[in-house]
Automatic annotation (TrEMBL):
Protein name in UniProt: AMP-binding protein
Species whose genome carries this gene: Streptomyces ardesiacus
AMP-dependent synthetase/ligase domain ranges (all copies): 10-358
Gene3D superfamilies (UniProt xref): 3.30.300.30, N-terminal domain of ligase-like
Matching Pfam families: AMP-binding
Stored InterPro entries: AMP-bd_C_sf, AMP-binding_CS, AMP-dep_synth/lig_dom, ANL_N_sf, ATP-dep_AMP-bd_enzyme
């Protein structure tokens, strides 16, 4: 299957159903299909060829969805960049992508013009030309012959280095992953999916694909004010909400302030970091009957495991079963498989494993390796966890999150979970020991540091209780709502100096 086959299937099955809306309006599947076809014709007239990279730095709107499908239909490679990416990283990313064409809005054109000699096409002008092409009469142009192993997308993701790296997403792997996730989550034709995340992040990008597979309506809400989220969810009749912990906490706070305005949410899915137990219970209280689905994954294979929605109250702490048609291994440092219950590196095997990083052969060789027996490609995630006797996965942290203190192995994940269990703690980040600092925890709370540490001592073994607690007004987060632990550590180090 090709990426644009998902849209074409929805157009054939339910052309008049609403496909996507943003704060400016809505399109049916038929209309979205027309715009994607028109953008394909526009790319051809620009001389873009199959395999060329098309860099797009735009807010996530209906137009961006059409550009995504139109790029796929042409056989080119869609490269979405977050509008909030700083010039420091933008230069290396554009150089790496080596695009044939760049599209942005007026706000992003200045920064892009500083890092590329290519002309930066303004989306206003591009879209006027796409509108004209859509209105043209006559037969459409023949579809490009696109192979399933051809690249559909490059997703730039931050890592342990300052320069983002691009995960290569061929059509076959992307559509397999989306279809496998849909097989578990079961998006429906009457679902309204409320997505706060940009398409430059795979969590946002795959909501486009999942909504298409489910023939669902996708609400793009990335530009909505935080205070307007609950109202927009009610106005649109939201039934499915993808979250990260910070967004989940925000939504439950809004519901508590206005309990009379509650949309018909039936499912909440989570990624980025584990949802604290208190947040899960708050979601269940806010949306009666809701299924809170825990997931675990990486862009390098999109998703590793999902808790089936009907089992959302079972096996607390688990991040679910491997995707259909895939396998999860737990390996020791020598690459040997570990039995159930033992902790090791989480390794994913299956058709969802991407082929590697764009133009980074050494990094690819370290992360993507071949199965000794079958030769199948497998992803070494760098994350650690264990499987139980029934094959459910339990995540214990990344390599950098796991450490020994006072002779005991522990993880920042369990310390943060304990902190979030304390009433009055809104967010928490644990910082592992370094050469000159002991284990510490930072929290957003009205409690005193002493109160937090006292409560932690009631929830953790003595060796796992941090020596220091910092109470802050706001913890730093990435643009995707994930913890920015390195930035927090630098801030605290600066304050100590």
């Amino acid at each position: 299957m090709l990426v644009h086959d998902i849209l074409d299937g929805a157009v054939a099955e339910c052309p008049d159903a609403r496909a996507v809306q943003d704060r400016s309006g809505a399109w049916s599947y038929a209309r979205l299909g027309e715009y994607s076809q028109a953008f394909t014709r526009w790319l051809r007239r620009q001389g873009v060829e199959a395999g060329d990279r098309v860099v797009v730095r735009l807010p996530t709107t209906r137009e961006l969805v059409a550009l995504f499908y139109g790029t796929s239909r042409h056989g080119a490679v869609f490269v979405p960049l977050n509008p909030e990416m700083k010039t420091f990283q933008l230069g290396s990313v554009v150089e790496s992508a080596d695009p044939a064409l760049v599209i942005s809005d007026a706000a992003g054109a200045v920064a892009l013009s500083e890092v590329t000699s290519l002309p930066v096409h303004d989306i206003g002008t591009v879209w006027a030309e796409v509108e004209a092409l859509r209105a043209e009469d006559g037969p459409g142009e023949p579809a490009a012959q696109v192979a399933e192993d051809a690249l559909a997308v490059l997703i730039y993701t931050s890592g342990s280095t300052s320069a983002p790296k691009a995960v290569m997403g061929p059509h076959a792997q992307v559509t397999f992953a989306a279809s496998a996730i849909q097989a578990v989550l079961g998006y429906r034709h009457d679902d309204v999916v409320f997505c706060r995340f940009p398409m430059s992040w795979d969590y946002g990008l795959y909501k486009v694909l999942l909504s298409g597979l489910g023939r669902s309506e996708l609400v793009l809400a990335g530009e909505e004010s935080d205070l307007m989220l609950l109202r927009r969810m009610c106005e649109t009749g939201t039934t499915v909400v993808p979250v990260v912990p910070s967004l989940a906490s925000m939504i439950t706070t809004l519901v508590r302030r206005d309990p009379g305005s509650v949309p018909p949410v039936r499912m909440v899915t989570n990624t980025g970091a584990a949802l604290p137990r208190a947040t899960i219970e708050a979601l269940r209280a806010a949306f009666p009957g809701v299924r809170v689905v825990r997931q675990f994954g990486q862009t390098e294979c999109k998703r590793v495991s999902i808790v089936p929605p009907e089992e959302d109250r079972d096996k607390p702490g688990s991040v679910g079963l491997p995707l259909p048609g895939t396998e999860v291994l737990i390996l020791d440092a020598e690459g040997n498989r570990l039995p159930a219950g033992e902790t090791g590196e989480i390794v994913a095997v299956g058709p969802h494993v991407m082929p590697g990083y764009w133009r980074a052969p050494e990094l690819t060789a370290r992360t993507f390796r071949r199965e000794p027996e079958t030769g199948a490609l497998r992803l070494h995630t760098g994350d650690y966890g264990r499987l139980d006797d029934e094959g459910y996965l339990y995540f214990e942290g990344r390599r950098d999150d796991i450490f020994k203190r006072k002779g005991v192995r522990m993880s920042t994940v369990e310390i943060e979970a304990a902190a979030m269990d304390i009433p009055g703690v809104r967010a928490a980040t644990a910082l592992p020991p370094s050469d000159d600092t002991d284990l510490s925890v930072c929290v957003e709370s009205d409690l005193t540091p002493q109160q937090v540490l006292r409560e932690l001592s009631r929830r953790l073994e003595p060796q796992k209780v941090p020596s220091v607690c910092h109470v802050v007004d706001e913890l730093p987060l990435t643009v995707h709502g994930k913890q920015e632990r390195r930035e927090l550590a630098r801030t605290l180090a600066g304050a100590r100096r």
